[in-house]
Predict the 3D structure of the following.
Amino acid sequence: MNQINLTTAVRKPQTSLSIIDIQGDVTGLAENTLMDAFSQASNGSTRTILLNFTGLDYMNSSGIGLLVTLLIRTQRQKQKLLACGLSEHYEEIFKLTRLNEAIGIYADEAGALAAIS
Amino acid sequence: MSTTESNPQGNTNGWAKPIDKLKVSESPKEAINLNVEGRQLSGLTHGFGQLWQKTYKVRLSGVKISPQEVISAWKANFPKFWPEGNDLYVPLTGIQPGEVGLINLSAPGGLKLSTGIMVIYADDISFSFMTPEGHMFAGMITFSAYEEDNGTFAQIQALIRANDPIYELSFRMGFGHKSEDAFWAATLKNLAQHLGVNNPQPTQANSLVDPRMQWREWRNIWHNAGIRSGLYMPVALVKKVFNITI
């Protein structure tokens, strides 16, 4: 049996912004960890959620499916979902799956924060 | 989600490269090559209808087999496990990231519905397809195998929206769901029997991820593969009668 290899940390640098730092593998196994982080990040007055993928080691197609689920949840709560810190490889995967057309992608956290403000 | 996927051998290269338009590299004479060449992939966020997550799985009871062996056999024989009358034509290289396959499906009235898939991801315990514009649904379908409760399971998980209002209507009326569910249950049964399982019992779980429709995508109807395949039928008949191969 394989183990979950994902840790998340939620930061709230602004009242309306939450950042989820992702460390490890985003696969189907990560569902509970990711959804718990999302619940923590999306409460209160959060309008934007930024997924920080700087610590991402690996993501498979089930992981992409989880991101779609997150995207739907943010849309239903009238929130915006952004991503930063993706390697060139995973940016390509966002393009392949056309997730880049629904999730704003920024090179790094500073770039995303600048765009939000 | 029931799965034991993880990073296989630290592999990050199981993904296909992004593409602008689909290109069919080869197709046998008997395949109808329609509605694929030049189409874009239907992104996970581009379909019209409700977003469903459908999980079909079967326990491979009575056989000692690893997830890797299941996926190896599945990849090697993928089209053979489909219900009779439905064909998938994949290149000789098989189920590899970036490969485009042609699908000819049996539809009511003797119609052959022609569409396709692209393999977007493959590793040794899973592989995933995305669909082109005009396919019945927009989304991604993942085939995987995993160990749980001292047994091995084969699983199909679809994250799909009906691609346009006509397909959505068929899903709402039950036809779309019924045929989709029967199709994948039969596929799992055929796979399990191929692997030596007696009387396999596939199960299914559906989850409505997004009940809303995406009205901005109604124009997807322009690419509807069912309509286009229907319009092509007289042409196909003429080609068959006069043995035209172009």
